[in-house]
Batch of 2 targets.
Target 1
Amino acid sequence: MKAFVIPGLTRSGHTSRLLLTFGMIALLAGCGYNPVYQTTGAVFAGYSESEATPYVLQMGDADMACDLGRSLDPLVYSFSRVTDRPDTTGSLLQLLAANCSEQQAWEQELRYERAIFNDDVPEAKDARTAAKRWHELTAKRRLEAFNRAMRAYEYDPTDPEAECPFLYADQDELTFLLGLLTGLQAIINDTNSGGAAGVPKDIAPQAERAAQCLDNEKWGGLPNAIRANVWLLLPDTRPMMSPDPWRLLKNSSELGVEAGFRASMALEAVAGETAGRRDVIEDVIRRFDAAESTIQVSEDYRLVDQVGRNVITHVSDKLWTREYGYRTPAAYFGQLSPESSSDTETMDLDDLL
Amino acid sequence: MFRKTTAALLMTMAVAPMAQAKSASMCVFDVIGANGDVYNLMKDYALEMKGHGLDIQLKPYTDEGVALGDFQSGQCDILAATDLRTRRFNRFTGSISAVGAIPTYDNLKTVLATLAQPKAAKFMKEGDYEVLGIAPAGAGYLFVNDRSIDTAGELAGKRMATLDYQKDAIHMVNYVKATVVPSDITNFAGKFNNGSVDTAYAPAFAYEALELYKGVGDDGGIVDYPLAQLTVQMVARDELLNDDEAQQAREVAWAMYPQAMALVKRSEKNIPDDQWINIPDEDIQGYQEMFRENRLELRDGKNGAPSVYDPKMLHLLSKVRCASNPGASECTAGNRE
């Protein structure tokens, strides 16, 4: 067909325009797709990566961001049928969509806690089943986000000798890093779903290895927080002479506050939950709240801080609901009981009599 | 039949504790009604109290005088209003807002924590009424339409919107030789904003909610010194609750301190930094003594002042101030409050 069209281009006038038109029609009809799609796909992928992603990362509205992931992912990723797979953007969209389903899982977890608090066994069972289903969906979305992120940077996580990927810009580093984080989260969600999503557990050591490709300080301690979480999940993965994972998590949390996004704190709380360390959870919630007055939330990664806050809030809500039957009242965020955390000074009233 | 009987029995057992539950109505003053911060706070108070067996129905009032009237005529069992209005039911708690008596929020916290203790219960009753809780509503600040009004001396001759039922404020305004322009909560903001008065006093909340920024404009500001601590007090007829229940209610209100204080802090933060007028520390010391002398007059009804402050409360507030600032001259003064 090209042979027919191209000579046509060399002619001039009416005949050549006619031939060109027919040639185009023949080209489009002969092939299975419209080249406009291909162009649109390239434009869409390019726009998503250069404009939409930085814009979304600056958003403080995690709820809207999750909806964006849920609704745009099928459209954006469908371009993989006509052009290169938009894996970088696709990874972030799945990650955002997973936050939506995790939010649902969290609500069910709280319903479960309330039911237990009220001794309502059927309600508790129902809530637990619902929570498992949402965790399953979340795990699947996160696994997909992990796979897409690894593919986007041509990194083979299964290869123990894999070299660090070439990460061109900060956004690439963050996309890769968040991919590793979602891999770790996928395992946790899968466990909470009762293994329903079938996430391969070896993602954890893979993420642990790959996290070393990123600058820990630059990324608010997140790479080390991922590693420490993996060490706690799978103690075998912990290298000899490595620092105590709890100390590493605390240090990562501090770096997170300095960097302006408290994702590491969320991971410290998650580790505390995994290990049943209430002292760690209580401490990290308190530190998260205390950082409120000092932190300069990063303008570029506001969403990351907000998602971190959501995790911390949920961890706090679960403990409050378990203890009192309701989630954390706003004025008590930062502590786990309605008792005053500091002993308020009082005056002696005896001499007023 | 057996099942029905059992079910009926279970129902009775389930209902039994509820049968002891009391219900009460509450007239709530909030300058913006049912969507305001105070009303919202009282919704939380009512919910907590429901957990303690008292079912409170709230009724919003945007006119504090009407709320007061309805409470007095028995149309509601509890009144939630500013201490300027509730002072008549309890002079002790009504003197928390004594001029200049609580210079910091830390001091206020100590005062309210002290009053929430069971030991303070006897001071909560006066005549036929009992105070069921106190919540902070923010410090009152002086709003001026000209930043040059930054000393008490500058107030001489200035027109100041003054609540006509607030006798201590009227005395203070006269003391600084300003002109009292009688007002109420619903019209003082308008007077300040349209320039018919030069100054007004209000908590930071009014800056946005009552649009006092209009009156402040480019030339005015807010003097960064708390003139008095405004509180919202819940007052009930004494027979509504027994002593234990009333104490529980006060503890519920005290537990809401962080929530109420967060609102206060947020309102103060909403005022842009450059709108605050800072006054030098040495001037503050002078003002503290000026306020103290006025409080003594308003306690004893001397020098033409009405007697409105309770001596015990003034003594307590003086103890709180001296505990946090023992070096202040008032702590060793012969006529200490």
Target 2
Amino acid sequence: MSDAASATPAEVLEQTWRDPPGLWGWLSAVNHKTIAARFIYVTFGFFVAGGILALMMRLQLARPDSRLIGPDLYNQLFTMHGTTMMFLFAVPVMQAVAIWLLPLMLGTRTVAFPRMNAFAFWIFLFGGVMLFAAFLIGAGPDAGWFAYVPLANADYSPGKRIDIWGQMITFTETAALMEAIVIIVTIFKMRAPGMTLDRMPLFAWAMLVTSFIVLFAMPAVMLASTALITDRLVDTHFYDPELGGDALLWQHLFWFFGHPEVYLIFIPPLGVISAIIATFSRRPMVGYRAMVLALIATGFLSFGLWVHHMFATNLPELGKAFFTAASLMIAIPTAVQIFCWIATLWTGRLHLRTPLLFILAFFVILLAGGLTGLMLASVSLDTQLHDTYFVVAHLHYVLLGGAVFPMFGAFYYWYPKFTGRMMSERLGKWQFWLFFIGFNVTFFPMHILGLEGMPRRVYTYPDGMGWNAINLVATMGAFMIAASVLLFIVNAWRSRRRGAPAGADPWGGGTLEWRAASPPPAANFDVLPVVHGRYPLWQPAALPDRVAGIDPALREVLLTSVTAAEPDHRMLMPSPSPWPFVTALATTVLFVGSIFTPWAVVWASLPVAITATFWFWPRHSESRIRHEREVRPEVRS
Amino acid sequence: MKDEASGNDDGRSLHVGHLPTFAFGHRSPMWWGTLGLVAIEATVFALVIVAYFYLRGLADAWPLSGSLPPDLLWGTVNTVVLLLSMIPNEMARRAAERLDLRGVRTGLAWCLAFSLAFLAVRALEFTALNCAWDDDAYGSVVWMMMGLHTLHLITDTWDSAVLAVLMHTGPIDGKRFVDVSENAGYWYFVVGSWLPIYATVYFGARI
């Protein structure tokens, strides 16, 4: 409040940037940390739900000829598990962490388009809730998380299960695309003065590459699922071979998204790993530019691999050969990064705390997953192993090794910043070893199962195949993983109150987020920083070190140039508003309505348009302030 | 309330109070946001066009059911209308960047008129496609392309209408001129994306 003459600048900033109180205020929140925290809680909730589904599957498979779960429910279980982990956890959790961290890392007060950020969260929440509500009333999707046609068409999957799945895709991808734009623009335009692209934290680089992948990959699955829904609801024939369609068109469109999706999940953790390794090695990353180029190369190459999911189809052999080469080539930028990390660890002074343990485990697990990936990149071997448990083992080694291990590392690493408290190191180490051992006990035997021919997605198997003991071991490992996750939740919950106070920089990190208080105030920084190097907190002080001329009584931010991060102009950011929430409700009515009637797209569009207009429409009071403070740019005559 | 770091000029502070409070083009976050939207939608259009030719490559005859290709008249008329709409669109954009309210109002009114004319002709286009979405895969992909582009037209028409009303009723500040400029930029995408779709829909079944 600018009239509160006695208030300190920090207090004024807090009043300016905090979310409004009460239920209405809760629904109107746009602070990036508030939205991101909700996102993190919800995605972690989906992670737990997906894990419970996996446990149910493992219980069913623990013994041969088990009658615990029938085939219909089992189909729903593996579909929901894959869908939840891929669409409702792995990609959004990384975006959520980025939305929370990036303004702090980049030295700014908020994200670009804070209302769109809030809208994306609500849409995501409603989509996920819709999917699980369908599952709980017995209408869960059952055609696998990649819903191949013709299995997913109206003839083989009657009812609404697949329509609900397809529309859930639209919900979550809409949210992911919006978050991608928010992240890209935040990185391009809101970095602290002096933070050139060459000085940007590697986590920000990883999120930038990820967000560009989202922009070009997600439209493919949205188009594919829309075509699937129209095939089912209004009798189009995109995937109907009898009338000129093609079942493989679905696979092409889906995997044109689906393989980059793996890298959407995998690239953000690469940034996390770089952050953690630098901090716990007590030195800057070796080969910063090589790391950046490797991230970009990985992003590019990720679009050239999708056909390796289709080696068992009748595609031309020459095409398969090309995709084999591309699949092998993606190992090169990954190797570059691994060597840079090893060099950093090698030349640093290691501090073996829980976050680093998870990262070191990542090396082991990802190496194993990567090697089986190289095996599956070979057409001849893939033809043998396609749709067996070998593939299940491989994808879990890559995705859990490449994403979940670093994610736990990230939680331990940034939890003190998030809450102001340290997590228990002892419980953390217990959780790590339980997770590491449990993971390997669960998934390593699956390689053997696959080599012995056990197909994936079967609800049971006969006795006498030699698979009994291996399946039982895998089930025991799954419960170890569950115990480990439970331990993490207990640790996180207890540490919120009982953890040791963290201070601003408990690990001795070098990037800007460690300059802010823990937990950060609503405005992130009392004074906006000026940056002179890649690790501002590790570098000798240089002047200027702060920004002046931004009014703390207004939601004003500094925008900088894209490459050199030179101060460009100031801008008033949007205030908290309930309209993103209301617009998300209207959009949900449209999406859900369209599952039942295509006319919903017509009649439900109007409420979306009207609520979006209210969202956009400026308040007179805010516009007046803008007008009074206006400093016009040079105008062309 | 004084500004942060109230500016003792001891060299510690980088003073930014003199900087403008809005900017056009690539200096504006809105420009980048719009570009992101364009990237997403351009990808969708590109994929639909690829799907069209993918299905065409599998077919013995194209169109599939022996139907005729779409009549050229209304699609061509609409292409001309769209190309002409770039004139008022550019007028509105330039007026916005001059902060010329009258010019913006005039430009937006003309843009809106062109959008509505285009949508009216689009309705006629749908009657002259010579196929229905449920005839076969050819009809499905043609209608998908046309439907997606029409959706863009409708949303941008609504956007232009909202802006036109706002620029008449207020409240108006510099940021609104940026909105007008970015709206014009997006319209260029709508025009630009139509040209490959027009070529595909109207000539993909003729060549």
